[in-house]
Amino acid sequence: MIISQLNRTKDHAFTQISARVQFEESDHPGKTIFIKTPHATADKLSLNPHAFLVGCLIPAMHFHEKRIKMDEKICPTLLEGLNIAMAITQVWSKGDYTPLKIETDVLDHALFSDNRHAGMVMSGGMDSLAALRLNRLRYPASHPGSIKEGLFIHGFDIGGVVERGMKYHVYDRAVTAITRITDAADVELVPVYTNIRHLCDNRVLWLENFFGAVLASISHAFAKVLHMVYIGSCYDVSYLHPNASHPLRDPEYSSHDMRIRHRDHDQSRLDKIKIVAGWEVALNNFRVCLANVPHRLNCGVCEKCVRTMIELLAIGALDKTDAFVENDVTPDMIAKYDITIRKRPPYYQAVLPLLRKQGRMDLVNTIEKLLNKQKSLKL
Predict the structure, then answer these.
(1) What pLDDT, on the 0 to 100 scale, is given for residue 290?
(2) With contact defined as beta carbons under 8 Å apart, do 125 and 286 qualify?
(3) pTM surpassing 0.90?
(4) Exposed, middle or buried by CB within 10 Å (0-12, 13-18, 19+), for 154?
């Protein structure tokens, strides 16, 4: 893979950094990848080669490239980390992905000044909102670890799959809701648009290896103002497993100028639900839905929505949120799903004791039946 033609441009609405990506070992078409933001936040965006190197690494491994060649100088801290990230990826993929050579010169200095602050990747879901709330409770506003910016990415779940459309209206609606939360937390929401995922939109690759690197890639693009970016954990320490975003791999995407911190894996999913439920503005404006339907922030029908509704119901908070229209969950809402895929059983097992205490044996019986049914089918 050759990464070249790094460029910074602007049009009537956005300022953009871009690079040309060419594959050498496969006939996969080349692509110009970009990261852009509205002019209002353009002063935060830098033409940082680290952003493109990190964003391209996993697709290069996926297409069995032998090298990544760049003419730009790269931080040796990042190069060390990428070698470790590739070794982890090789082991987790059982050898399907092998490390490649990164051909580039090495920086002998820092790229940015120390007068910067902390940010986070903001999705509007439970992981990111719990991370923001805990940061506000634990860090004085003057501390360099206190979050000042939240990066909200178009091209991740919204607009990430070309065949599903770019859905800019869904993104804009989410921006409106999430801004209510970030304003209350004195955090600036920074809209970011990228097509890095479109380098290879293989779903298994995305979920198991790629999306954490994209989060880190976007973070590096804002290293002009951020020295550290928090990524909310997907799983807690009791249930860690190979995943695209993981406390073992995410930090290896760091450079001397940009520390990537995977955080809050000491908190269970229910812990996070309780943290968000105790913060009114977040409880009323969270976004967990991946269906991205036209007229609702959360569809209330997909498995992730129903699972979140069950969790809120279990802690007595479903009827207190405006983020869902529904105030209750019935067995038929969950019965149609396979709740054992993608490492989901612990989420459902955790709510069973709370549902029993509430006398919701209809949901308890349905969940246990689904878990046992799928277990028996796999024997």
Answers:
(1) 82
(2) yes
(3) yes
(4) buried
